[in-house]
Amino acid sequence: MQFVRYRRPRGPCRLGIMIAGVAYDLADCYQRHRQSGGVAWKGVSAALARGSLRALLAAPGIEGLLEALRGQALTHEACALRAPPALCAPLHDPGRFIGIGLNYRSHAREIGQPIPTEPPLFAKWANAITGPYDDVTLPAYSQAVDYEVELGVVIGRRARQVSLQDVMDYVFGYTVINDVSARDLQFRTGQWLAGKISDGFAPMGPGVVEKADVGPLRDLVLETWVNGELRQQGRASDMIFDVPALVSRLSHLMTLEPGDVIATGTPPGVGMSRTPPCYLGDRDVVRMQITGIGVIENRFVAPS
User: Fold this and answer.
1) Are 233 and 126 part of one and the same domain?
2) Within 13 A of 103's CA, how many CA atoms are on the CB side?
3) Structural domain ending residue among the three candidates 88, 119, 148
4) Domain count, the chain
5) What digits encode the pLDDT tens for the residues 98-135?
């Protein structure tokens, strides 16, 4: 089951669900459920009206809704979308958007860095998030914009000081993230933030796939193509700190909330590691894929 946000011809993005290749409007499905006498789940209606997956995951009635969706008790052809939806970023308003640096052994080696003993952390913010197929404007103040395919982890329950044994109970699902990075800004100081936070620097999607519908994480293959050329390819088994380790560690540093996003690092093949470095330019198309989760594709354009 995959949660998406999509655009109608007019109006804001709405929440949808994709099951067995069919897309449904969640608000329409819920309204039909209520009109037929179905139970009201607390907080669900307000979250659907906002079109916010973060708000939906935080709603007190989320477990009832999820159970009904998993049993296909809410989905009906009356609320199915008649055409393939134009997708927005599936989660546009996370309370926290946490990035992990140097988390693949082979990526650390390719850029000549030692294997970290603790995961390097940085932040991105909601302004960086854009849709899975939207154009990304290259900032005029950078000449070294790079691509990084990453597995995105979406938190489903409040997590504070969670043990490794229990941590996966707090993960809701996964998405594809391009952690776009302006390298000339990233390394001007010891903090990476300046290279990570430009508008549109986190294409995300195409949806958030529930964890039960994703195979073993270590078997996931992450790939990037630039203008049709394969640039990145790696397996999640190459992670230095796997998903349980990252979520547990972070939960001991801060309280994680439903809808928080963690970008878990990138495999080798980034533009700055090539000889000579190969950064993104006007009209370059970056396509990223993670097995079992989906594909995003974004065109990078010069500022007007």
Assistant:
1) yes
2) 25
3) 88
4) 2
5) 999 999 999 999 988 899 999 999 999 999 999 999 99
pLDDT tens digits for 61-79? 999 999 999 998 898 888 9
| Residue pLDDT, tens place only, 222-273 | 999 999 999 999 999 999 999 999 999 999 999 999 999 999 999 999 999 9
User: Mean pLDDT for the chain?
Assistant: 96
CATH number at residue 281: 3.90.850.10
- The residue to which tokens 């007007």 are assigned: 304
Domain of residue 27, residue span: 2-88
Distance, in Å, from the CA atom of 143 to the CA atom of 183, rounded to the nearest integer, reads 8
Distance between CA atoms of residues 163 and 46, nearest Å: 33
- 127 and 180 in a common domain: yes
Instruction: Answer yes or no: are the C-beta atoms of 157 and 59 closer than 8 Å.
Output: no
Q: Is 47 helix (H, G, I), strand (E, B) or coil?
A: helix
DSSP annotation string for 56-79: HHHSTTHHHHHHHHHTTSS--GGG
Question: Count of residues for the chain?
Answer: 304
